[in-house]
Amino acid sequence: MKFFRFIIIVFIFVSCAQKQAKYDENIEFQQGDLIFRKGMGVKSQAVLYADSLGAYSHAGLVVFKDSIFQVIHITPDEREKGEEADKIKIEPISVFWRGDRAEHGAVYRLKDSSLCEAAVLQALRLLQKEVLFDHNYQLSDTTEMYCTEFVWYAYQQAGKDISNGKRSILYGFYGGTYIFPSDIYSNKEFILIYKF
Fold this sequence. Notes:
Strand 2 (about 60-65) and strand 3 form a beta hairpin. By secondary structure, the chain is an alpha+beta fold. The protein has one domain: endopeptidase domain like (from Nostoc punctiforme) (endopeptidase fold (from Nostoc punctiforme)). The protein contains six helices and ten strands, in the order αβαβββαβαββαββαβ. The protein starts with a helix and ends with a strand. Residues about 1-20 have low confidence and may be disordered. The longest helix is centred in the N-terminal third of the chain and has 18 residues, at about 1-20. The protein has helices spanning about 1-20, 40-50, 95, 115-130, 145-160, 180-185, and strands at about 35-40, 60-65, 70-75, 90, 105-110, 130-135, 145, 170, 175-180, 190-195. The chain is globular and about 45 Å long. Helix 4 (about 115-130) crosses helix 5 (about 145-160). The strands form three sheets. A six-stranded antiparallel beta sheet has the order 4-3-2-1-5-10. The chain has a two-stranded parallel ribbon with strand order 6-7.
């Protein structure tokens, strides 16, 4: 009986420890920073498998709203209670990088920050429009978007192609042209601010 209780206590401790933030909460974010995470789900693993150069499976854009830095991003399968569709959202960085969502994370910043505010305004406009997640991953259609398409589009509308035209092409069943996280953060115009 004591052994059984010990196993339960260890399990609870490990479960709680895994859900704690694993990053430095004193990071000096700026509006327009790009924030990435390596997710832990099956879809994240699929992205990483397809993006052979990638270290991260998801991306968002940092904004300062309601007196704190938050992340605007768009992802499948993280709906709020009562929501019927996957759509763009805003949430605190602590939620974006929560232990059950992020194994690793990073923040990248454009060396030339002159267009960051304009990109943030575009991101807020898309948030207000409640853009839906693009389950077909069609880069040619911006009525629905996936995560990297969203951050690329916000900057593109502000006047900057943050991928420098880089695209990843897949063949076979999931064939198509995509923007993967590595297509963006490998751009030499970005500097790595933080990673865990």
